[in-house]
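Lecture 7 notes: from sequence to structure.
We start with the chain below.
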Amino acid sequence: MKWNSAKIFWIGIVLLVIPGLAHAYLLMPFPGSQDLNAITVCYYLEKVVMPLRLIGLLFIVWYLFKYYAKNAFRQKIVKASVFVLCVGSFYITDYMYKAETMFKETEKPGFANGLSNRVPLNYLVIGVVNNGVAKAYPLIYLGYHHKVQDEVGNKPVLVTYCTICRTGRVYSPMVDGVRQNFRLVGARHYNAIIEDESTKTWWYQATGNAAVGKLKGKQLTELPYEQLTLSSWLQKHPETLILQPDKLYTTDYADLKNYDRVQAIDKDSTLKNKDSLIRKSWVIGVIINGQAKAYNWRHMHIKRVLNDEVNHIPLLIGIEKDSLSYHAWNTLVKGKALHFKLDTNGMLTDDETASVWDWDGLCIAGPQKGERLTKVQAYQEYWHSWKHFHPKTTFWKGENVTEQTAFLDMLL
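Predicted structure tokens for the same chain:
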């Protein structure tokens, strides 16, 4: 048998397998894959994987018809075994490590009111309000599905959550006036990538930014939401509808048990100083007029209430008694910045008038009664993700110390 004939077979095998494996590696959080700046490579690689496979298959079929019979028995066994392994690789790349099959979206989201709800009250939820209608999406379900495409108050919403960067976002699925259906593509830089149906553009979940494709550079419209316990959400919105678990994915939901309770740093027995800043440290992030700032969750958990200023805007960051529900408000009221503390009953009180405020930012007693603080969109996120997508962020590590990320990089 001539060497050129064997070359035909092996070229076919390479075209059949390597592009698919490379694509799967780059789009899933394998060691080293997420640190590469390869989203454009991934995007175009996905488009050529199938054509390259077909070309590879033609090479192999050509070889089988023309040369395979001339092989010695041992050579036949080797090539047949290699081909079987190729078939196995399809299972790996097109099913086992394909995001949209690993994390399926519930097709018919089911909701219940507070009376018929089956979701535990201490579960964290993403809460959305529109046109007087409130809905709550439990993180333990949303974390598996990654996204729920729904409507709130007759307004289409795309509710998303990425567990590998630990952050939720709610977007309008309307792109250039057209409601889009989105599919989960995979992950880049440890953040979920979604693709719209019409233009096949890829969007980062954590920012809503179009990273590659026809609409590159555009931004999904972000919609306001809150992350808090279902119990806290029900106190604010007793008539809310609550996403119920899909029975098809009971086992998948169980894999996220305690996801919203225990930090990675607490599970690391090798780390003696639990105040160390690590990649998966939780932070609360805000963006005020283009300026990003992050707050160390562990220190905020102890302090609970922090008066701050970001880009000349007075800000209040607060964590409720349940240690899970967090908020951010602009504290400017009637042209004057208020400063807050907790009273003996755990209620928010301002220093200026001693008025009492609830955890929805409403003043319920005192001279300011009836006034309401303006909510500021805040996010809970892993430090490595927040820092990557907001490289110029400042950081509050505790005790009123703000550090620039250049210094923090030396600590990590």
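Points to note: The first helix runs from residue 3 to 27. The chain has three domains: 3-97, 111-254, 270-411.
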